Amino acid sequence: MDDFHAIAPDQVVQRHAQPGVSLLTVLHAIQDELGYVPPATVAPLARAMNLSRAEVHGVITYYHHFRTEPAAPVTVQLCRAEACRSMGTEALAQHIEAHTGCRFDAEHRQGATVELESVYCLGQCALSPALTINGTLHARVSPEKFDAIFAAASKCAEVTA
Questions:
Q1: Contact at 8 Å (CB) between 68 and 45?
Q2: Model's pTM, two decimal places?
Q3: Where does the chain hold its CATH 3.40.30.10 domain(s)?
């Protein structure tokens, strides 16, 4: 991922906003490249796609997947949908909060090292409870399994920091 501050918003938008490409596809491409959709890309993206800034902003804020600031070095997304709930995801959520000292869906603090997010279906209903850590999917997660994969993710985050 490039450092956004080293790249002009117009350049990022120009790379991805090609004729015939949908706004969602462009937003995904920007987030894949930068790790988030910087607010400074809204105006150039609106111009490039012949949309209003409000329309672009509305799409970014409607979909929970899109971020408008960089994620924490370790981001946990826990499925809170019914299948995972029936298999103990709420007890797992309590364990995760106690283990990390963070709360699910709390406002993201710049500089935080861990972020916990609720999501509603990771497509692993038969293998619940499921979660992702930094985008890597894990199924049949127990508190012990969480502790192990979280420790590994935290160690990787320290190495790349």
A1: no
A2: 0.76
A3: 74-159
- Cβ neighbours, 10 Å, residue 38: 19
Q: Which of 1, 64, 3, 53 is nearest to 23 (CA)?
A: 53
Residue type, 65: H
Tens of pLDDT, residue by residue over 48-72, are 999 999 999 999 999 888 999 888 9
Reported as a single tens digit per residue, the pLDDT across 18-58 is 888 999 999 999 999 998 999 999 999 999 999 999 999 99
102 is in an annotated binding site: no
Determine the Cα angle at 158 with ends 40 and 137, to 5°: 75
Q: Angle between the 23-34 and 9-16 helix axes, to the nearest 10 degrees?
A: 130
Fold of the CATH domain 74-159: Glutaredoxin (3.40.30)
Instruction: Give ∠ CA 78-40-102 in degrees, rounded to 5.
Output: 25
**Bridge-based pairing state of the strands 74-79 and 131-133:** antiparallel
Is 156 marked within a binding site? no
Go through 91-108 and write b for each residue having 16 or more CB atoms within 10 A of its CB, e for each that does not: ebbebbeeebebebeeeb
Q: What pLDDT does 159 receive?
A: 53
**Torsional class of 40: left (φ above 0), alpha (ψ -120 to 50), beta (otherwise):** alpha
